[in-house]
Amino acid sequence: xxxxxxxxxxxxxxxxxxxxxxxxxxxxxxxxxxxxxxxxxxxxxxxxxxxxxxxxxxxxxxxxxxxxxxxxxxxxxxxxxxxxxxxxxxxxxxxxxxxxxxxxxxxxxxxxxxxxxxxxxxxxxxxxxxxxxxxxxxxxxxxxxxxxxxxxxxxxxxxxxxxxxxxxxxxxxxxxxxxxxxxxxxxxxxxxxxxxxxxxxxxxxxxxxxxxxxxxxxxxxxxxxxxxxxxxxxxxxxxxxxxxxxxxxxxxxxxxxxxxxxxxxxxxxxxxxxxxxxxxxxxxxxxxxxxxxxxxxxxxxxxxxxxxx
Length: 309
Hints:
Elements: E1 6-12, H1 17-27, E2 34-40, H2 46-59, E3 62-67, E4 70-71, H3 74-79, E5 85-87, E6 92-93, E7 99-101, E8 109-111, H4 113-140, H5 145-164, H6 169-193, H7 200-206, H8 217-220, E9 227-228, H9 233-245, E10 255-260, E11 281-284, H10 294-306
Parallel strand pairs: 1-2, 2-3, 3-5, 4-6, 5-9, 10-11
Antiparallel strand pairs: 1-10, 7-8
Helix pairs in contact: 1-2, 2-6, 4-5, 4-6, 6-7, 9-10
């Protein structure tokens, strides 16, 4: 990967429609054939996350993703579109159990797994209760299997029927559809990136007990094929950009910037311009002559841009 072929895009803030539009605006300034996405987000709208990753896949031959610290929920969906993933020691991803708005509250969301796991738990316990009643009545009370099973059924029904009655079928269907969104979007993005292991998507959607569960680099390697720790200039880039992106990580107006790195013969002269702002894309160029991998070259060039800021 030549230096001139790399665009570095930074995205800091919630994943939402405004952020998607900011990404699209930044891509109008595309210079390279490949990109490095630096992402810092608590998550947000999965539909917008899919559109962001899809836009990058459509615009570039491929893109890699660098996570300086936090990339949760819909942010994890975005990096499913990346060919390679760079995670530092303090970086973390999150599960893809889609969040659904609570039906009885203006603010607050439930995981798409909540109702499904509750139903599974109740079913398991109801079956265990039935077996316990049946064995006790048949072996200790000396009742026939038919009579014991009839009594056990009535006891189990009386115990669990009020609980099952609280499960709303429409809510259950809503949660199921929410989970299918994550599966469908993840599969579509992985068609081009090809970075998910065989059971990686299923693990991301259903394999973790809480939406806030931390997926660090070691755990990520059980989900993704190509996961590396950033080293050298790329690690310096990771640290430097985290310091500048941290303040807008939780902002509803994402800060999006694009840096196009151009390689010229004379590395002693250079010009850089940068525009940043909520929902707006910045554009910068920096002359650099750096050897090594494409990631290393891109990192060195961005450090050139940020060193004087």
